[in-house]
UniProtKB/TrEMBL annotation:
Residues 120-215 form the GmrSD restriction endonucleases C-terminal domain. Keywords: Endonuclease, Hydrolase, Nuclease. Residues 62-82 are annotated as: Disordered. InterPro entries: GmrSD_C (IPR011089), TAT_signal (IPR006311). It holds the Pfam family GmrSD_C. One of its GO terms (molecular function) is endonuclease activity. It comes from the Bacteria. This is HNH endonuclease.
Length: 222
């Protein structure tokens, strides 16, 4: 059974969940680039049991048509300070022994893609995936946000929304939801479902019935 979509405005949701993220992201851009203090993966999402509770609280409705969608409506990659943008911060965070030049571009390091267990030593082989794709977000409620709010979503370092993965695997995912695509690495399905639900919950985005069913099955088996 679907619940009524929250009447809380996207601007209020953004202020609660993204306003703080903006400050933390800027701080993260400094801390994560300091070497030993760097995080090795995205922020840890809630447990599977908590994610199930969150999933059951999401609005269930048919996805929007996508009319009016453009990646330009979700500006990225934004500046995170110290000449670094969001992509470079995530590359530093998710890699090992990452070296950067004076413009913050990654010039060396090792990245292991959790989606397929691929290991890469060239940053050009790595994409930064939006766990909940931008098009998916648009069709699930983000079409009602402002471009500034969508920029916060597209550059969110506070939730488990951004992760460095093999480029062609990310491209095969496209804008598909978990009912249509899951990481080739089956051992990562539980984590992926937890990440997906935590992001949708944080941004009050809806799910469709097939998406909810798949996520529920995965989380119940964690």
């Amino acid at each position: 059974m679907s619940r009524t979509r929250s009447t809380t405005s996207p601007r209020t949701i953004y202020a609660r969940r993204i306003g703080l993220a903006g400050g933390l992201a800027a701080l993260a851009g400094t801390v994560l680039l300091s070497g030993p203090a760097a995080q090795a993966e995205p922020p840890t999402p809630p447990s599977a049991s908590t994610a199930l509770t969150q999933l059951n609280g999401l609005t269930v409705e048919t996805e929007g048509s996508g009319d009016g969608y453009s990646r330009d409506r979700f500006p990225h990659w934004s500046s995170q300070g110290d000449s670094c943008n969001t992509r470079e911060v995530v590359l530093k965070r998710d890699g090992e022994n990452v070296e950067q030049d004076g413009s913050c571009a990654a010039t060396g390091g090792t990245w292991r893609s959790a989606y397929d267990d691929g290991v890469w030593t060239q940053a050009s082989d790595v994409d930064i995936d939006h766990v909940v794709p931008l098009s998916e977000a648009w069709k699930s409620g983000a079409d009602a946000w402002t471009d500034t709010e969508r920029e916060g979503f597209a550059n969110d370092l506070t939730h488990a929304q951004l992760i460095a993965v093999t480029d062609n695997v990310n491209q095969s995912k496209g804008d598909q939801d978990p009912a249509e695509w899951m990481p080739p690495n089956t051992g990562y399905h539980c984590m992926y479902a937890r990440m997906w639900v935590s992001v949708k919950d944080a941004y009050d985005l809806s799910v469709d019935s097939a998406e909810k069913s798949t996520l529920g099955d995965v989380l119940s088996g964690c």
